[in-house]
């Protein structure tokens, strides 16, 4: 027998060898060391796993509006000034003292309405004298005509009778002329008395009244007693560039021939909350202003509510023609870049950039030229946050926007396909 130390060494070696053999036997049977003791779970892969792919960014929420294709008016904007169609200055046609003033400053008057009354007593006294003179002349005319008739019956009785007939005929003619002269003087005096009552010569609004009752006015002094301005209808004068002259002439010729509408004109005054007033173009100047390159126009407007005032500045919109097939988008959809203007179209959940050319703006919409079709939806809000090909979703749920499996828009863009159910294989027993 060996020493005790040798026996212990041999025994320890036998125990280690038996433990290793037993563990390998258990591992072969499917046993694994618990994970808490550093072992792997059953069925775990031993190969290194790849890192997961990053999730795509969520789509940008935008608002869209449809592209419109169809008739669009061609509008020309200008600044205009309101001018009256007529202004009458009231003056006296006879001399006299103002006896009464029948109106107030700024009053609306009608044609024939009395404005002032002058003192006409002297003219009435003169008329009475003239009427008396006419009565005397008529009496003399009757006597002369009687003498003429009497000598007419005696003209064949001698030379003297013929001479008296000629004298009586001349006296009768002179008496008739005196009557006509007196009647003419009386008519002139009556006209002076009529002129003593000064009336309005047209409908309109009175201006300031510089003279009051008691003032003496003379015809020779040509003093203005008042002014009357016609307010309804009223004119608006404005100018447009000469390049619009062919369109205007064509539209006015079509209106004259009955083959098309006349050029439409709308005006709006500053701080006027009402709808624009619509009128008709009535005047095109005969020459283009060579200094400004513009042509002067006038339009007539009905003004019963006095929304337009002479001398007032207004905004004018002239429509010389209507473009039959125009492409228009909301003005907010138009973007500007280094290569020009463009819009973003929402197509199958993606923002697509389309270059366009701005033609004009009409009432908040931009008329453009470009590869746009009617009904396509352009981005009007959120266009600054998207780029060409970026995912976008219409927050209003309009057609053309991405949706989920139920057709509703989602915050994550187009819905991912539903995963297939797990395949379960039948195990043979």
Automatic annotation (TrEMBL):
InterPro entries: MdtA-like_b-barrel (IPR058626), MdtA-like_BSH (IPR058625), MdtA-like_C (IPR058627), RND_pump_MFP (IPR006143). Residues 51-60 have a biased composition (Pro residues). Residues 325-385 form the Multidrug resistance protein MdtA-like C-terminal permuted SH3 domain. It is found in: Cell membrane. Residues 42-67, 390-429 are annotated as: Disordered. Keywords: Transport. Residues 87-229 form the Multidrug resistance protein MdtA-like barrel-sandwich hybrid domain. The keyword RNA-binding does not apply. SUPFAM superfamilies: HlyD-like secretion proteins. It comes from the Bacteria. The keyword Transport applies. Residues 233-318 form the Multidrug resistance protein MdtA-like beta-barrel domain. Belongs to the membrane fusion protein (MFP) (TC 8.A.1) family. PANTHER family: BLL3903 PROTEIN, MULTIDRUG RESISTANCE PROTEIN MDTA. This is Efflux RND transporter periplasmic adaptor subunit.
């Amino acid at each position: 027998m060996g020493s005790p130390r040798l026996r212990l060494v041999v025994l320890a070696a036998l125990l280690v060898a038996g433990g290793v053999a037993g563990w390998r036997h258990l591992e072969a049977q499917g046993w694994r060391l618990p994970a808490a003791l550093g072992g792997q779970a059953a069925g775990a892969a031993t190969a290194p796993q790849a890192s997961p792919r990053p999730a795509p960014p969520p789509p940008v929420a935008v608002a869209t509006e449809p592209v419109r294709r169809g008739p669009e008016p061609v509008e020309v904007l200008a600044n205009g000034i309101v001018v009256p169609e007529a202004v009458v200055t009231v003056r006296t046609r006879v001399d006299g003292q103002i006896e009464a003033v029948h109106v107030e400053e700024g009053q609306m008057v009608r044609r024939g309405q009395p404005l002032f009354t002058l003192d006409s007593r002297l003219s009435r006294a003169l008329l009475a004298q003239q009427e008396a003179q006419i009565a005397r002349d008529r009496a003399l005319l009757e006597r002369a005509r009687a003498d003429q008739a009497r000598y007419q019956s005696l003209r064949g009785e001698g030379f003297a009778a013929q001479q008296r007939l000629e004298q009586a005929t001349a006296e009768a003619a002179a008496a008739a002329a005196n009557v006509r002269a007196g009647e003419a003087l009386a008519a002139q005096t009556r006209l002076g008395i009529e002129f003593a009552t000064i009336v309005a010569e047209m409908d309109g609004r009175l201006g300031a009244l510089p003279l009051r009752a008691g003032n003496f006015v003379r015809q020779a002094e040509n003093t203005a007693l008042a002014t009357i301005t016609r307010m309804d209808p009223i004119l608006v004068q404005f100018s447009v560039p000469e390049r619009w002259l062919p369109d205007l002439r064509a539209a006015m010729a079509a209106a004259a021939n009955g083959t098309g509408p006349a050029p439409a004109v709308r005006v709006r005054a500053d701080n006027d909350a009402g709808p624009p007033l619509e009128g008709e173009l009535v005047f095109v100047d005969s020459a283009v202003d060579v200094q400004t390159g513009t042509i002067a126009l006038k339009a007539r407007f009905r003004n019963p509510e006095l929304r337009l005032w002479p001398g007032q500045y207004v905004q004018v919109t002239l429509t010389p023609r209507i473009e039959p097939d125009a492409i228009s988008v909301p003005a907010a959809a138009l973007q500007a870049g280094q290569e020009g203007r463009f819009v973003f179209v929402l197509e199958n959940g993606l923002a697509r950039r389309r270059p366009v050319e701005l033609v004009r703006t009409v009432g908040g919409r931009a008329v453009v030229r470009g590869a746009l079709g009617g009904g396509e939806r352009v981005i009007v809000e959120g266009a600054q946050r998207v780029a060409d090909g970026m995912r976008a979703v219409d927050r209003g749920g309009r057609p053309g926007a991405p949706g989920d499996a139920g057709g509703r828009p989602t915050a994550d863009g187009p819905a991912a396909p539903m995963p297939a159910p797990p395949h379960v294989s039948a195990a043979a027993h």
